[in-house]
From TrEMBL:
Family matches, as CDD domains: M20_dipept_like (cd05680)
Annotated ranges, domain Peptidase M20 dimerisation: 197-355
Lipid biosynthesis is among the record's keywords: no
Lineage of the organism: Bacteria, Pseudomonadati, Bacteroidota, Cytophagia, Cytophagales
Domain of life (superkingdom): Bacteria
Keyword tags: Dipeptidase, Hydrolase, Metal-binding, Protease
Pfam families reported for this sequence: M20_dimer (PF07687), Peptidase_M20 (PF01546)
Ligase keyword on record: no
An annotated Gene Ontology molecular function: dipeptidase activity
Enzyme Commission code: 3.4.13.-
Protein name: Dipeptidase
Length: 462
């Protein structure tokens, strides 16, 4: 460790409690992007970040209104000759529902066993805010190694639709050498990793209509199609007994990995027994012929995210419902195209419907799959940063989740992304009792600082 690194780490160490307190203040703001009831809170979170960017030393921080929630942009340009790192993150969070399954209120953060419990603690407020604190640590110790730009959005959890427009309209402003994102996970604190692949997404809602009104299930039952029964049959037929998706053309563009690539992927530490134990399941489930790491990392899948219709109140009501609904997502891998898969699904799903019902399919958001490079200077800088801070070379992994903007950064700005995440699967993102370890939060800040230093150094000798 050189003198400047020691000074920065001392700064982080002596400001640790304040860094935690500020994150807790941010977590108190219920910035749920999906629910219009929280619109003002989403705007409040954007303003909070703008103020914190300025306080951390940004020359400029602005709120950009969009057709949806605002984008926060900030920058500090110290020397046009130096490389520029553009940090992307999101300040919106998933809905906290169901509230009754939380052990403490989702927007009243609680620290227990060295962890911060709150919606967004890890995804992505905790992980995004590490970058603002790393930035502050560097500006305060006069050790900023790269120019810095921040683009923090409020619509990631609802598909980043308006961000695409913002990126297209602000290409010069966003000009950089690399995009840096902390919004993924590592294998474990003993096995740090860098995400090199994300799945894409196609998300749709379906509505099946039977009779024009809810009917008495005795008077009409057996003689009129029940749309809930029909919807279940249609959904069941979307996968065969081997776990293959039956939509014609679905696999046509799926990139098959070579034997070597599969072997490399399966070398990552993975303990099936603790995986099952953590989820309290007796058996795993999935596409035949693939391991769990392959099933989530490099194979596409289809899942029902929600299904409803008929009577779900207390007691029993005898009703043959008029309508049934479901929200269905497909996770995609290279080189599947989100729009094309949405189209294939829609055609196939409609063709499945018997004449006794009518079917409506409405697409929601989507996103393209992304693979990032491991032979870039940015990847090497991230790898070195982990080595220095965690004492281990990080393992490249392919994650199952999606961050739609990553593919867009490549196609719109021609920029590569480094996915330097610090979350753990056990942080329970999107679930009740989401949390983030204070160790990861602080260690992550140190690792981010090291990334900037290695990136500047490696760029110089390029
Ligand atoms: N941070 C996650 C994505 C993620 C989590 C990637 C863990 C890798 C590991 C992100 O906030 C997210 O939840 N994305 C959504 C996509 C979106 C279009 C709703 C997702 O994956 O469901
Ligand atoms: Mn996220
Ligand atoms: Mn998320």
């Amino acid at each position: 460790m050189n003198k400047s690194e020691m000074e920065i780490n001392n700064f982080i160490d002596s400001n640790k409690q304040r860094f935690i307190d500020e994150l807790i203040d941010l977590l108190r703001i219920p910035s749920v992007s999906a629910d219009s009831k929280f619109k003002d809170d989403v705007a409040k979170a954007a303003n909070f970040l703008k103020d914190k960017l300025l306080a951390a030393g940004a020359d400029l921080a602005e709120i950009h209104e969009t057709a949806g929630h605002p984008v926060v942009y900030g920058e500090k340009i110290i020397d046009p000759q130096l490389p520029t790192v553009l940090v992307y993150g999101h300040y919106d969070v998933q809905p906290a529902d169901p509230y009754e399954l939380w052990d403490s209120p989702p927007f009243d953060p609680l620290i227990k066993d060295e962890r911060i419990y709150a919606r967004g603690a890890c995804d992505d407020k905790g992980q995004m805010y590490m970058h603002i604190k790393a930035f502050e640590a560097m500006t305060s110790t006069n050790s900023l190694a790269c120019n810095m730009k921040f683009m923090i959005e409020g619509e990631e959890e609802v598909g980043s639709d308006n961000l695409e427009h913002f990126v297209r309209e602000n290409k010069d402003k966003l000009n950089a050498d690399v995009i840096l994102i902390s919004d993924t996970s590592i294998i474990s604190n003993d096995n740090p990793s860098i995400t090199v692949g994300l799945r894409g997404l196609s998300y749709l809602e379906v509505e099946v209509t039977g009779p024009n009104r809810d009917l008495h299930s005795g008077v009409y039952g057996g003689a009129v199609a029940n749309p809930i029964n029909t919807l279940c049959e249609m959904i069941s037929s979307l996968k065969d007994e081997n776990g293959h998706i039956t939509i014609p053309g679905f696999y046509d563009k799926v990139e098959e990995l070579t034997k070597d690539e599969r072997n490399a992927l399966n070398e990552a530490p993975f303990d099936l027994a603790s995986y099952k134990k953590e989820l309290d399941i007796d058996q795993i489930h999935g596409e035949d012929g693939y391991t769990t790491l392959e099933r989530v990392g490099v194979r596409p899948t289809l899942d029902v995210n929600g299904i409803w219709g008929g009577y779900i109140g207390e007691g029993a009501k005898t009703v043959l419902p008029s309508k049934a609904h479901a929200k269905i997502s497909m996770r995609l891998v290279p080189n599947q195209d989100s729009e094309e898969i949405t189209k294939l699904f829609t055609e196939h799903f409609k063709s499945l419907a018997p004449e006794s019902v009518k079917v409506k399919v409405t697409p929601h958001h989507g996103g393209q799959p992304a693979v990032t490079k491991t032979d870039s200077i940015a990847y090497k800088a991230a790898s070195k940063a982990f080595e220095d801070a965690w004492g281990k070379t990080p393992i490249p992994t392919r994650d199952g989740g999606s961050i739609p903007i990553v593919a867009m950064f490549k196609s719109e700005l021609g920029l590569n992304t480094v996915l330097m995440g610090f979350g753990l699967d056990s942080d329970a993102i999107h679930s009740p009792n989401e949390s983030y370890g204070i160790f990861n939060y602080i260690k992550g800040i140190e690792t981010i600082v090291l990334f900037h230093q290695h990136f500047a150094r490696l760029k110089k000798i390029e």
